[in-house]
Write a structure and sequence with these properties.
By secondary structure, the chain is an alpha/beta fold. Helix content is 52%, strand content 14%. Bound molecules: flavin-adenine dinucleotide. Flavin-adenine dinucleotide is lined by residues 125-126, 152, 154, 177, 179-183, 218-221, 224, 245-247, 250-251, 268, 282, 285-287.
Amino acid sequence: MKLLNSLIIKMVQLFPKSFIRIFASRYIAGEQLLDAVRLVKELNSKKILATIDVLGEDTTNVEEANAAVEEAIRVLQTIYNEKLNSTLSIKLTQIGLKIDYNLCLHNMERILDVAKEYNIYVEIDMEDFTCTLDTLKIFKELRKKYSNCGMVMQAYLRKANEHLNMVLNELRGSSVRLCKGIYNEPVEIAYKGKQEIRDNFIKLLDFLFSENIYVGIATHDVKLIKGAKELIRKYSKTIEQFEFQMLLGVKVDLRDRLVSEGYMVRVYVPYGTHWYKYSIRRMKENPKLPLVILLNIFAKRG
Ligand SMILES: Cc1cc2nc3c(=O)[nH]c(=O)nc-3n(C[C@H](O)[C@H](O)[C@H](O)COP(=O)(O)OP(=O)(O)OC[C@H]3O[C@@H](n4cnc5c(N)ncnc54)[C@H](O)[C@@H]3O)c2cc1C
């Protein structure tokens, strides 16, 4: 399915951006922070938590990285002022990881200083494998000074367990978001089979639970959710000790069911003008993409 979607996406990318924006809209709150605020308030009113993400990645100059830091700080101030039940999610390449390691570390400290003042938690997203080791290193460094940040583990990585052990001490009293991983990595780096990724996800979750680490179980895969529930029972976890996490616009019915069962669910709410790359990744994962595209083409003609 992902292969078919990749082919369709290649074709779709030839279309004008305004056309792609139609499919992208379900996955993003809008272009402005106000759009995200409106959406988070709606989620919070349904007892759903949020994590706000300012879209953007792979920043190539210091000015852009600084602008991204300023915007992240604006989000933190808004979360505080509007009393939103939300964390902030951030990609390190957006604040300079690919420009200079120390610049990125410094920028993260600027963000965490403000977040600490407002008592807001920050989740560091995990990007492609060229960023993994630096992200782990920065997280380790930040944890010496800050308790209000967590990071992400990707279950498709063959070395995920090794990486986890590198930051195990720092994860105590912090949190980890466990997801499958979205980037198209080489086979030497990442598992490719659906089931082997699932197996590694469950193995990692079992380990994290056994170590009493708070986990954001970030998946829409019903088989993984079933497996996670079995582990929750095995370790007699209470609802304060983990949460489910989902992406905006994905599996809303499943999300609402988890909420009605009494689980904590957090939704990833991206906003901003740099919606293109993020949306393309989401579209590739949508199993109904061919149908959605066809319906939209006919709807346009009709
Ligand atoms: C809160 C959150 C944060 C994340 N952060 C990161 C990160 O920092 N780094 C990273 O590499 N990855 C991140 N991811 C993405 C993750 O790695 C997966 O790529 C993504 O969640 C899809 O995997 P899945 O476990 O839902 O399983 P899948 O097998 O991909 O999906 C399960 C089912 O969900 C539905 N579904 C999934 N995606 C879509 C879609 N786009 N549109 C419509 N239906 C869909 C389909 O019915 C599908 O069969 C994050 C995911 C979440 C939920």
